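Target chain:
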Amino acid sequence: MVVTYSERWQELFGPTGDEPAMRLASTSDEPGTDAGGTGRLKYSKSPWTSASGTADALRTRAETSRSVLGRGHEGVTAGAVGLGSAAALKGVLTSWEERLRAVRDECDQLKGNLLAVAKETGESEIAVKSSLKGVHVPGEADEKR
């Protein structure tokens, strides 16, 4: 079954009666629960920075594994002269080296992208916070006095 873009959009965001099809994970319909509803959006850049660190660690491990794999195959060709399995082993080595290079390169790109999101979102949060300092919120100033 092929779902069109419009059908998928309706599935995610379209109305299904009075209820929205999509909710924030921090909200709750149950009376008496303390989930959501505070009126304040909280944001932290640390999940993005943490994910970037994880991508960098995976990038490092992929490169280390590729290097160790290559060293493990040194001398195999000379010791397996005349065996048909030597060519097959070399093919497997080449295949795994290519895969590990692809993982390394993708993780390197992902690391940069995640850090950029952390920086952009963090800077946006600071800019928005600064721009709202002069906005009067009824009841809030009265409570602080």
User: Anything to note?
Assistant: The chain has five helices and no strands. Residues 46-131 form one domain. The helical segments are 5-13, 46-72, 76-79, 84-131, 140-144. The radius of gyration is 27 Å.
